[in-house]
UniProtKB/TrEMBL annotation:
<dbReference type="GO" id="GO:0047617">
    <property type="term" value="F:fatty acyl-CoA hydrolase activity"/>
</dbReference>
<keyword id="KW-0378">Hydrolase</keyword>
<feature type="domain" description="HotDog ACOT-type">
    <location>
        <begin position="16"/>
        <end position="128"/>
    </location>
</feature>
<dbReference type="InterPro" id="IPR029069">
    <property type="entry name" value="HotDog_dom_sf"/>
</dbReference>
<dbReference type="Pfam" id="PF03061">
    <property type="entry name" value="4HBT"/>
</dbReference>
<dbReference type="InterPro" id="IPR006683">
    <property type="entry name" value="Thioestr_dom"/>
</dbReference>
<protein>
    <submittedName>
        <fullName>Acyl-CoA thioesterase</fullName>
        <ecNumber>3.1.2.20</ecNumber>
    </submittedName>
</protein>
<feature type="region of interest" description="Disordered">
    <location>
        <begin position="131"/>
        <end position="150"/>
    </location>
</feature>
<dbReference type="InterPro" id="IPR040170">
    <property type="entry name" value="Cytosol_ACT"/>
</dbReference>
<dbReference type="InterPro" id="IPR033120">
    <property type="entry name" value="HOTDOG_ACOT"/>
</dbReference>
Length: 168
């Protein structure tokens, strides 16, 4: 392990330091023939949000390693704003787990509704493109602990539902 990796491994980052919020107005290029968000566009936004949260946390380039199951539970209509939020809730030696939530917002009324949630795993890279150590995760406030615990439990529940649904 080089000196940079040793320093990074000794550091600690917080849930709050990784928090990322993005917004996208749903325009025709990202809609299907019903005027609703294309699933691929939403997944793209989620991946970007998760990557930014990861990079903010570890101060390194990251790559997507995996994305858990996704259910689109409510559409995003053309003209609505997609609000994408993500934060790191767990780390390994070189990996970061990120919860990403998406909700639709009507910009005229302020009405919001949840559209999807998924959990991503990213891997931090060093300057040579090899996996690199990430800081330890801390949740120093009650709010950060609640976010971390919510993500851990939510991922556990989502995976259990997938196993049950597909009789795995």
């Amino acid at each position: 392990m080089d000196e940079t990796e040793t320093e990074s491994a000794a550091e600690t980052g917080t849930v709050a330091e990784s928090y990322t919020e993005m917004t996208e107005m749903l325009l025709p290029n990202d809609t299907n023939n019903l005027g609703r968000a294309l699933g691929g566009a939403v997944l793209h936004w989620m991946d970007i949000c998760g990557a930014i949260a990861s990079m903010r946390f570890c101060n390194r380039q990251v790559v997507t390693a995996s994305m858990d199951h996704v259910d689109f539970i409510s559409p995003i209509e053309m003209g609505e704003v997609a609000v994408i939020e993500g934060y790191v809730f767990n780390v390994g030696h070189t990996s970061l787990d990120v919860k990403v939530d998406v909700r639709a917002e009507n910009p005229r009324t302020g009405e919001e509704r949840r559209t999807t949630t998924s959990y991503f795993t990213f891997v931090a890279l060093d300057d040579d493109g090899r996996p690199a150590s990430v800081p330890e995760l801390a949740a120093p406030t009650a709010e950060e602990k609640a976010l971390r615990d919510d993500a851990i439990e939510g991922r556990r529940e989502q995976l259990a539902e997938v196993v049950d649904r597909y009789d795995l």
